[in-house]
Amino acid sequence: MHGFRRRFAKVTATLEPMEATLIADLVDQVRQLLAQRRQDRPQDPLAQLTGITVGPADTPDDPALARLLPDFHAEDAELSAGLRQLREPELIEAKDTAARTLLDTLPPGGGTVRLDEAQANAWMTALNDVRLAMAERLQITDDDEPAAVRADPDGPAAAMYATYRWLSAVLDSLVAATMD
Fold it and tell me: pTM for this structure?
C-alpha cells in the first residue's frame, strides 16, 4: 500500500490482497469482541415494553473491550454505570456500523479503495478501534516497543506490533488525505 490520496471528491488507496485480508480479519475480530459484549446486556422488562435497549452497567472484564468502551465518568462510578446502561448499546452499534462500512468498501481480493467523506470517517473509526484493541493486548503505554517485543523480537508479539505500526501508518495516511 502506498497510502491514501485525495482524488477529486474521493480518498483512494490501493491495497494488496494480503493487506485487504489482514484489515478485514482484524476488523472482524473487533466486531466479534463487540458482539460478545452486546450479548451481555441484561433482560429488562421495562426496556422491552418501551423499546429502549439497555446495556450492562459494569465495565467490561476484557481490557481490550474496556478500552473500546471506557467508563463514561471517571469519578462517579454510579453515574458511569447508569450512563453505560443507556449509552453503551448505541456506542457499540456506531462502532459496528463503522466496521461494516469498512468491510463493505474493502475490495476482498485487494485493489483500489475509493471512499467518500462518510466512508473515510467510518474507516478511521474502525481502524482506530482495531489499534486500540491491539494496543491493549500488547500493553502499549507509550511510543516505546512493548516489553514482550523487546523480550522476544521474533515472537508473536513482534508480529502483532509490526501490524499495529502498519495500521498506524495506514490510519495516518487516511487522516492526512481527508485533511487535504
Answer: 0.89
